[in-house]
Amino acid sequence: MKKYILIFLTIASFNFISCGEDEDPLPPDTVIDSGGLTIELEWSNGGSFSDAISAADLELELTIDDEVLDQSTSSTRFESVSLSNFLADANYSVGVDVFSISDDVTFTVFVKGVESETTLEYTGSFDSEDGGASFPDFLTITKSGDTYTIQR
To answer: N or C: at which end does the chain have fewer Cβ atoms within 10 angstroms?
Structure first.
């Protein structure tokens, strides 16, 4: 009987030790990353990369209090900006603008941790009649230390 009690206690002790608390999952729309964020903009009109670039020229910008911190305005590729980890804790805005457009497009903004493997996606669209249209506050990113909370 003592042998069975000893075996039971050994197994129970092992289970107790190996079953530590699980880490809390990240809240939705949150990235924890000590390297900051890369924010990328891609779009499609249903065709190839070349078709998308021909159909629209979209722009991406990162701002704080209406001051542009980073912008990407290429006409030959998709767009990308960075939110560096050394910037102040604050609310930042991600804007998507139409420079030119000839076909309806759906766009995706990817928010990626520089060092983590976390990627969040947010979509929108522009119609071919939306020349000059803008989503100046398409996303709001609240930076608090290494935690970035994204709001749409």
So the answer is: N
Contact between 94 and 60 under an 8 Å Cβ cutoff? The reply is yes
Which residues neighbour 78 within 8 Å (Cβ) at sequence distance 6 or greater?
40, 41, 42, 43
Q: Are 39 and 110 in contact (CB under 8 A)?
A: yes
DSSP 47-74: S-HHHHHHHEEEEEEEEETTEEEEEE--
Given a contact cutoff of 8 angstroms between Cβ atoms, the answer to whether 122 and 111 are in contact is yes
The whole-model pTM stands at 0.83
Rounded Cα gap, residues 131 and 106, in angstroms: 14
